[in-house]
């Protein structure tokens, strides 16, 4: 058990990863404060924690703070030993100007680091993303790992991908030049699956939802890395306290990457009738290209069609002893929870 006096700030408490970080910090005995954009959402967070049967909810407090504004951040960080900076803007559709995303992501991260340094926080863990590793490359990358950096000026990266790469780079530059005694580590998840705790969730979860609810006429010819949200939170806690994590980035993935067709077939095999609408064939690339003409969100994935990326989690498993669930188990946990909450 952690020292009961230690306070952890988790930013972005309403998000999928944020809630599970709160959950695991409470279970480990920390006091937790979380920032949410509006205190009106306090009960949503509590409800999700109760759904997950969290313990020690009485040791959780809330602070109002928005990534695009200074208000509230200083007070939120004051007195914390650790900060898990999970919050990041994630738009449902591409923004009009990429700076609408890049600036709040970068400035929001730098604000947290600056205030954490000034408040004497020991370590900040920034939730980055595979988006800061896997894009904009002109040469073929054999294995994607922590040594790889997205090239925001290369071909392909969307505004979201750029925002994650630029924000993480800015964080490391800050630590090097003006971080003082503050320590940093970063966690970079791929597509995050695992059990949902209510109707509030990420884009990767929507893929499972679409496979189950029959809205995919075929499986888009895409593949991506999979990881369970519980393992992502676990990696945050390891990155927060393990001395060996200081100054390091950790890719959070349970390899190998899966195609959407593989996910669909796994759902059919394990869930039987509940997955009877899941497609058994690949949607031809040309059909997806047509859909993308009308659907901006789909257009974002076109550069990725048919590509299979090889990813490694050797660093997190080897250095921090991290042991993630299998990719199929992560997908099944999502499917079962969607069924439980009647969301398919
Ligand atoms: C299936 O889920 C998707 C994504 O979450 C949603 O947009 C769509 O309306 C749903 N379709 C049906 C038929 O329920
Ligand atoms: C999937 O995409 C790859 C790369 O573009 C292509 O070679 C392959 O034929 C596609 N598969 C199908 C079934 O369309």
Q: How is the topology of this model organized?
A:
Blueprint: E1 7-11, H1 16-27, E2 31-36, H2 42-51, E3 60-64, H3 73-77, E4 82-85, H4 99-118, E5 123-127, H5 159-178, E6 183-189, E7 191-193, H6 203-213, E8 219-220, E9 223-224, E10 226-228, H7 229-241, E11 249-252, E12 258-259, H8 260-271, E13 282-283, H9 285-294, H10 296-299, H11 314-320, H12 327-340
Parallel strand pairs: 1-2, 1-4, 2-3, 4-5, 5-6, 6-11, 7-10, 8-13
Antiparallel strand pairs: 9-12
The structure holds 2-acetamido-2-deoxy-beta-D-glucopyranose (NAG) (2 copies).
Q: What brief labels describe this structure?
A:
344 residues; alpha/beta; Rossmann fold; two-stranded parallel ribbon; 12 helices; binds 2-acetamido-2-deoxy-beta-D-glucopyranose; oxidoreductase; oxidoreductase activity, acting on the CH-OH group of donors, NAD or NADP as acceptor; Nucleoside-diphosphate-sugar epimerase; NAD(P)-bd_dom_sf; transmembrane
